[in-house]
Design goal:
It comes from Cellulomonas chengniuliangii. This protein has one domain. Helix 2 runs antiparallel to helix 3. By secondary structure, the chain is an all-alpha fold.
Amino acid sequence: MVVPLVLLVIGTATALAGWAAWFVVRDRAVILRQLWGGAVVEVLMVLQAVVALVLVLNGSGSPEPGTFWGYVVVQLMILPFAAAWAFAERTRWSSVVLLVACLTVVFLEYRLLQIWMG
């Protein structure tokens, strides 16, 4: 895995989590701009998955490919589900859902890096 890309995903997801936390504190629902921020994080994760696939095809890879790709697939599903939930739930809890989803992405990024490094 490319460490700068991992750090970029972690940084953007953390920033979005902070923004969602601010909305939780202020008792506000998620806004469309936050969902666009989630889309940016999602695009970065898709890019990261493509880079990981290219690295695997070139001979690099995780010592635990099943676990690694399982984490990648789950990670790619988290923000779309959270965005759909946040869009449907127009209360403060939509911000809580986005916050938890972003923190989950940050944790999964950390675990992906651990798995990749062996």
